[in-house]
Amino acid sequence: MYDVLVVGSANADLMVRVERRPGAGETVPGTDLVESAGGKGANQAAAAARLGARTALLARVGDDAFGRLLLDAQREAGTDVRHVLVERGARTGTALIVVDPDGDNSIVVSPGANAHLTPADVRSSREVIAASAVLSLQLEIPPATVAAAVDVAAESGTRVVLNPSPVPDALDARLLAAADPLVVNEHEARRLSGVVDGTPADWARALRERGARSVVVTLGGAGALALDADATEPVVVPGVEVEVVDTTGAGDAFTGALATRLAGGAALDEAARFAVRVAAASVTREGAQASYPTARELGV
Description:
11 helices, globular, nine-stranded mixed β-sheet, four-stranded mixed β-sheet, 13 strands, UDP-N-acetylmuramoyl-L-alanine:D-glutamate ligase
């Protein structure tokens, strides 16, 4: 039924640009507020759909203006939204984003309706998960809901791509064992691996030893590193040099693209090379979903 099914969050992104991000107790001037569609789950779904993958999103939004914004953005990207649950009287999740002149950002998330996505919602979608090539998960929804999705995927043999963000102090062993791959940035890799002073390769090996089936470490502008299940050494994927405008949602663009290529049968390192290209293209434009390239724009 689907190449990529995303179970996760959907947020309205409220973004403002500043000359520098404020310190504690400090007020700084910013640009006009920009409202756009975001949330790690919705971002990954939009990225996959814009690349041509048959994509669906299982999420919860409120019946407010932000919920309508998010649904419209998913439809525009090409995502099947029949599994998005609209909760009456609930506020849609919101992310407050501050972007500096280098394109780096700071984000605070208010979960809203995302906190109401339940294990029962996931179990009722058992047939959809079973009919999907790849299930993409993040941690902006309740942990019990993520665990339920992993359990259903294990029953059906659906491949799980897990992006453990926001990063917890420790990742449940059941989730780690399901990750194929575990997709982490440098901060997440260091924290979850317990290897404070190591290299990305050290982090990847430690995470696989801890139970992940395979691991991808994203390295920002430097590219990524991929360690497959049966590989003795990780593959280094170089970055693509671009002019950075806004890094918001770049990690989600990477994960959505990675899931798309894995659903098509690509090897992990090949999928990571494609994902690096997609993420690099995304940072040349403002915003998250609006910045994601289509397959035509990439020439693929």
